[in-house]
Amino acid sequence: MDLFDRILKQAGPLGKYAEVAEGYYMFPKLEGELGNRMMFNGKEVVCWSINNYLGLANHPEVRKTDAEAAARWGLAYPMGARMMSGETKLHQKLEQQLANYVGKEAGYLVNYGYQGVLSAIDTLLTRHDVVVYDAESHACIVDAMRMHMGKRFAFTHNDIASLEKCLERAKRLTDGTEGGILVITEGVFGMRGDQGKLREIVTLKEKYGFRLFIDDAHGFGMLGKTGAGTAEEQGVSDDIDIYFSTFAKSMALIGGFLAASPEIIRFLKYNMRSQIFAKSLPMPLVEGLIKRFELLRDHPELREKLWRNVSLLQGGLKARGFDIGDTNTCVTPVYMHGDVEEAMGLVKDMRDNYGVFCSLVAYPVIPKGMLILRLIPTAEHTEEDIQVTLEAFTAVGEKLKAGVYKNFVPEVIG
Description:
This protein is an alpha/beta fold and 414 residues long. It folds into two domains: 3-58 and 300-402, Aspartate Aminotransferase, domain 1, CATH 3.90.1150; 78-281, Type I PLP-dependent aspartate aminotransferase-like (Major domain) (Aspartate Aminotransferase, domain 2, 3-Layer(aba) Sandwich), CATH 3.40.640. It has helices at residues 3-9, 18-21, 60-73, 89-101, 113-124, 139-147, 160-174, 198-202, 205-208, 230-234, 262-271, 273-276, 283-298, 300-319, 340-354, 383-402; strands at residues 30-31, 37-40, 43-47, 106-110, 130-134, 152-155, 181-186, 211-215, 242-246, 256-260, 332-337, 356-357, 359-361, 370-375. Helix 10 (230-234) links the parallel strand 8 (211-215) and strand 9 (242-246). Helix 5 runs parallel beside helix 6, helix 14 (300-319) packs parallel to helix 16 and helix 15 (340-354) packs across helix 16. The longest helix is centred in the C-terminal third of the chain and has 20 residues, at 300-319. The radius of gyration is 22 Å and the shape is globular. It starts with a helix and ends in a 12-residue tail after the last helix.
């Protein structure tokens, strides 16, 4: 069969909805200044779908730094990969600041979060090593597992008994060999909003002799006494061997960083192909990240405002009878029941008639019959935004139960 013939016959689990979804439910165009209210389809909506947790995307100091840095450096400098010609003192400064913040000795910038996690894991492992990872890990971790040439075991989400069974199997395979064990989990699971059970996981390290890698994309900047993330929140920073976070959540920019011992960071710097062969992060981004990190670190009131909004939103949803699962972080999933067409009808009603924009998650991402409307509170949301949203959820929730969206037929787009 011709390669393209096969591709065109198999649109994929999400692609099959493209005709009725693209431009509205998928690949929607939010316009205007990034913030709590944006424009969608020509109307203002309360926006719960951007990961601007601390409101730094349009912070005046950030905008000023970004503009001045772009004017000073242009977007090309430094040219080349860092190993060859793209190293600067500011790249090194940012790495060290971030590493110190999360309790590690050394850090390493990566150009993209997804790519950074995937390629770091790939670099750390050989075919002799065994990986044990949470079954609900982010796609970047799952894709790293697909690349791994050795054994891998997925433990049931946040189930320590399941983890230990996987570790027993991993230990049998690696005892007496040159292989090691890497356990991978997330600080905060971006769909459910629950924290990884880091405290319980680290108690097993001595018994099974594994190393621990955590992806803390939704924890860094939000959790912990100083905002240093989930490991700080749970008091286990010293027990995390490799810490990762993206800049795309709390710092509202592209890129990410790894933090570990100097020896492990040195190994990654000299062996991580995605960075060795990629252009260095442009200087305006690095200066912008230094400013964002300064605000994140030195202005706890941003985090305090965020958590007030989280409490108001999540408390209001629960008071109105909505199921938000086991979230104990900012991520706010609202669980409902219905098919994909009902989900589309509900979302269209919410956006067009109630002025509330949040992300929809339905089959095949989650099981048939279940819907998730995921909200990401930020420090920029107001009490009025929250009240409008609670009223909208009450209205569409009642309509869903009454079967109003049962016969919804989505329009073909384009």
